[in-house]
Structures are given as C-alpha cells and as structure tokens.
Amino acid sequence: MSDEKTAQNMDKDFFKRTDAFIQVANELCKEQDTGKVSASMLYAAARFNAFIVASSAKDKSEADRNKVEAIDYFTEQYRAMLLANMDDYINKYDEYMK
Fold first, then answer.
1. What is 3-96's CATH number?
2. E-only strand ranges, 1-98
3. Which of 27, 53, 78, 93 could share a disulfide with 70, CB 3.0–4.6 Å?
C-alpha cells in the first residue's frame, strides 16, 4: 500500500489539512519569493512540532529527554515524505509542470 493510501486510511482529513496549508503557501507565493515561503513553512513545522513535544511532556526534564527521539522521528518522517513527493513530481513531471 502506498504512503498516501496509508495516510488516507489512518486519517480521513489528512489531505484536507495538507491542501489547506498548501493553499496558504500558494497565496503567499503570489507576492513573496517561493524560497522564502518554503523557509517559513519549514520553520512553522519545526516550531509547531517543538510545541507538540514540549506540551506532551509532564515537565521540562521529560521534554529534554524526549528531544533526541523526537528530532529523529520528525527528521525521518520529513525525509520519507520529501522523497515520496520528489519521486511523484519526477514521475509525473510533464503532467504537473504544464
């Protein structure tokens, strides 16, 4: 089963939320450099994920203990998602880049 199908089966709103974030980015790209929009999205994801790790810990020391594991998890997830999306864009380049 593809990663996309797995995500759809786990959470029916996954791609609805994803599309909402992309829509905001596309709107920003109308007036901003795409590289700057991309950097802002990466920072927002990092900031939000740091919040998730901190807010799920019972105290500061637990958050600190969870830091390395969380970084490994988020890095692995981002790498897998980026690779899957790069492959998709390469495989469908002519269709997507019309």
1. 1.10.287.3020
2. none
3. 53
Compute the distance between CA of residue 4 and CA of residue 14 in angstroms, rounded to an integer: 10
Find out whether 7 and 14 touch, Cβ atoms under 8 Å.
yes
CA gap 96, 98 in Å, rounded: 6
> From CA 82, how far away is CA 77, in angstroms rounded?
8
Could you tell me which of 49, 26, 46 has the C-alpha nearest to residue 18? 26
Dihedral over alpha carbons 55, 58, 62, 66 (to 10 degrees): -40
DSSP state of 92: T
